[in-house]
Predict the structure.
Amino acid sequence: MIAKQRAGTMDKIVALSKRRGFVYPGSEIYGGLANTWDYGPLGAELKRNVKNLWWRTFVQKRRDVVGLDASILMHPRVWEASGHVVNFNDPLVDCRTCKSRFRADHLIEERLHRQAEGASPDELSAILREANLPCPNCGNRTLTDARQFNMMFATTIGPISETGTRVYLRPETAQAMFVQYKNVVATSRVKLPFGIGQIGKAFRNEITPGNFIFRQLEFEQMEIEYFVKPEDGATAFDDWLSAMRGWLRLIGVREDHIRVREHAGEELSHYSSRTVDFEYEFPEPMGWKELYGLANRTDFDLRQHQEVSGEDLTYFDQAENRRYLPHVVEPTFGVDRTCLVLLLDAYDEEETLDVNGKPDTRVVLRLHPRVAPYKAAVLPLMKKPELAETARRLFSRLDEELGALVDYDETGNIGKRYRRQDEIGTPFCFTVDFDSLQDHAVTVRDRDDMSQQRLALADVPDWLRERIG
Ligand code: ATP
């Protein structure tokens, strides 16, 4: 489905997330704190499923990748070495009339449909002056020139802010992998090529956050720094490109909603020799936006940290009897953007009939069973002790044998309970009815096509395990 046809889906996802407990606005009882979001009970499960699957796929299952779980606070010189103090800026324009702030490159991309990421403030200012754009908020043609704004959040260690040490909340998880590279090489018997993977929080003082959980001030990343021989960067890049495509298939993102966009020379970050963005086609008015990135960071980071820290970060290649700084290929995945596209891709409305035979709209989240918060629900047809006994036994068995979350719901009419499970993406419902007490079987109802079939109680765990992967 093209973005235009899906216009409005974002609002529906925001409403469903609140209504069903996927994502709530942050600090809501205090009037909220703009662009902070909290994952509710179902969102926490979805997010955990994404992170566990990623960790299993890229760290535990691969013999060439090891994990790391580093501090959010790092020595301030890390960010000097990495270039973030000087380069991690967004170009900002103010409106002199209403005092609103915008990202200059985004404004140009949105209003003039010109690629502007990576352009200097002077270039952006020249484009803005020539186009004489009105302020998107108040309409006055009173926008300032573009100027740089550093996106790192700073805080202070120590009791008094004047004498304390100024530190930053990390704006990416990547740097810890470079800073700990030497320890990992010395302690984990890894040999090139190898990767270090990490999942964790990152913080950015974004000028124009928004679009729900797409752009937040605080978010989570899943990143790998993959260290290779200097001459092997290009090959590793291609390997990771296909591994990232494989990941998107694994979690069930629709292929026609994804494209891979190559960064042109002027758009490349200061550290990168080649970058591609995995873009997702968000519903209008967002359109194509970055979901993930893949960059060849060359030996930029290790070289910088070697120089600034004074530590030798070269690698001794025993097989070739030579010493060099490895090159690094970095696949980076946003956890929150993953959750967002999973919800957007899964959302569907279907015209159908309600329990009384009246026309009705069925809302269904067609989440892949791998990521769905609940893998199944056990539903006694009615709230009766004899049904509850069998249903509870099935629930306990699934709970223990599956090691995944299963729901149990016995209140309300069965049609409404099915609809609730549809809306939260539960792939299968097992209904225990009076026949079950005689034939030791249950009805399995499929979320996607609402079909029903009879299945022996004893077979349920294996049947389900096969389907959730
Ligand atoms: P954008 O161009 O959208 O600002 P970026 O190029 O700055 O993104 P990276 O620095 O490559 O993003 O960060 C890696 C990943 O982290 C992104 O692909 C995205 O999934 C995620 N990410 C980055 N910034 C945010 C944010 N403010 N909120 C949520 N996720 C983010």
Remarks:
- The CA atoms of residues 89 and 101 lie 15 Å apart.
- The chain has 15 helices and 23 strands.
- The first strand starts at residue 23 and ends at 25.
- Residues 89-150 form a domain with the Herpes Virus-1 fold (CATH 3.30.40.230).
